[in-house]
Specification:
alpha+beta, about 80 residues, globular, about 15% strand
Length: about 80
């Protein structure tokens, strides 16, 4: 079993639900009431997606070397 490290983008706030997606895996997304729950659900969604690709004989996408950061912009 190969372990891959995919970037996920987690969005949301404590007063609302969270959502996440993986830029390297279009269409793979998850939600959760808290950030940790959303991350957990996203791990499961990615694993399920990769399993489906493998079962269908499709190639498993290699993770890009992307990153995410915040920037400050004056308005």
């Amino acid at each position: 079993m190969t372990e891959r490290r995919y970037l996920i983008v987690l969005e949301g706030a404590a007063s609302a639900n969270y959502s996440a997606y993986a830029p390297d895996l279009p269409g793979v997304a998850a939600t959760g009431a808290a950030g940790q729950e959303c991350e957990h659900e996203m791990r499961a969604a990615i694993a399920f997606h990769l399993e489906g690709l493998g079962d269908a004989g499709q190639p498993i996408p290699e993770p890009s070397q992307g990153s995410a950061t915040y920037v400050n912009v004056a308005d």
